[in-house]
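Quick one - first record:
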Amino acid sequence: MSSRCWRRGAELLFAVLLCGLLQGAAVAAEEFDYGLVPRKLADDTWVLIGKTEDFNRSNGGNIVNTAFIVTTEGVVVIDSGPSRRYAQQMRRAIARVTEKPVIRVFNTHHHPDHFLGNQAFAGIPTAALAATIAGQREEGGAFTDNVYRLSGDWIKGTEPVPADEALRPGVQSIGGHELELISLSGHTSGDLVVLDRSTGVLFAGDLVFYQRAPTTPHASIAQWLAALDRLAAVPYRLLVPGHGDPVGDGRAIEQTRRYLVWLEDALRRAAERGDEMSELFGLAIPAEFAAIPLAREEFARSVAHLYRRYERETLRRSR
């Protein structure tokens, strides 16, 4: 074979391989597309609605509501999502709405779907309550490993990056928006709620779930119920829950409250009867909650997370 023919063959082979690689990259990009579409809620205010599902390899962790506010100074992001890839796509979604830069990121709490996107906002001030930052530092690595186990390569390259600024409750004025930062607890030891006084939009984080069963790995139900009382007194126009559709009335708060009251009563009664944990997993769930996505799964997890605490309380009272 002549050198000229050999070169032509090599060039053809290279072209075929390159084409295959490009096609593979395009397929991979399509496979890992979160499909983020900003939904406008109010003046300058958009939300990205997540699925009412658990982490899996189809949704890549897109199970959370994140949001952004376009101010005259720049964009304020509320929660950065479950992965670096999500936050990168979130930034592209923001760029389709405005040319203004992101100037601040708030994390409402330390659960992975709310902060593992921080990595994609490097160099931008990221703020959270002190308890949230402590949780991010302590559990971020384990969270990332677990999310990768559940969601696979959607999470590839994600590293846990804690917020770099500890917030104090109060009002921050940013680009024509008066943001009231409210420090609560119950879902976790540090739950940030953001009320935009300029629009009346309340970003409740995971203190409120709507049409999706609440998660409880770090919960104190008594504190959570007290936090819901506080939220019910806030003069909001529209509430954005951590999971589920935004609502303009109190139904999301009330649904979360009723679920938690039932859950606490069920666990306490079981402990008083002396039931073993295994006996609770088949407990009947009231009809108003049974049809909510993940009701059975989250109840089982809540039993695992919380039941020993109720057993100990019952034992102390009996002494």
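second record:
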Amino acid sequence: MVDRISFEPFLEMLVAERAATSNTIAAYESDLRSCAESLACRGETIQTATTEGLKAWLADLVEKDGYARRTIARRLSCIRQFYLFQLREGIRQDNPATSLEAPRPQKTLPRFLSEAEVIALIEACSVPEGASAAKKRRGLVARAALELLYASGLRISELLTLPREALRQEAQMIVVQGKGGRQRLVPLSESARAAAQALLQSDKARQSLYLFPGRVPTKPMTRQAFDRILHDVAIHAGIDPARLSPHVLRHSFATHLLAHGADLRALQVLLGHADIAMTQIYTHVQADHLSRVMAEHHPLARMSLGKDQ
């Protein structure tokens, strides 16, 4: 059994200096625990780890556990940060993670829905006349959530923690609390605002601080509760639930915006990406659009066109 106290100071630093969320802390703790358990099998601890011990841990992640390269790269990043922290604090005089190499990340395109599928999902939130009050509210929750996820590109954690005050009647933009405590302004579409206002009106008696309250109004809805709603809406819309997740809707938002000519820098701001390299995964949809722009507007392209005529 690995004692959490060995990496407690590092986790505390992440909260104090980087405003890391509870989800981030849980992920870092899981990565550190995985490394510590592997080292323990070799007679080492995370405090006394050698480079060889860390390499053996990485090898096990690939060969025995079969983790994806992206996951392994994330775990390695955590370990590197941990030993840099130990070096900075004088806990260690060396850094055993210096020569570790991360596997090359797999180049996978983000999964997204077609525009017709997104419309079908939103329409599937409608509840027939005569439905129970619980089913009607569930439909309102689903409609407001899908409209906001798709119209604004929110992360699920950002959506579920939205305060009700963010959706004032006249609001054209909403303030979103993103990763690392960073705030950004996101435009709000008319249909998304209407769906959110309908939910707020329905939930007036709950007196919750959140737009999407949980069973206990003082807390936001859990991710698991929202996943169940999303699953039901997907089935109603005739879409395989395995193809759908909040992140797929975020990818759909980005992909459709770029397909309609949005600027990559603007998309970076809307998504809350700290680095534009993170946004560039969506450029797969821009190839045809950029080709048309070049053909229509580049002077040499126009000259070539004139010669052909």
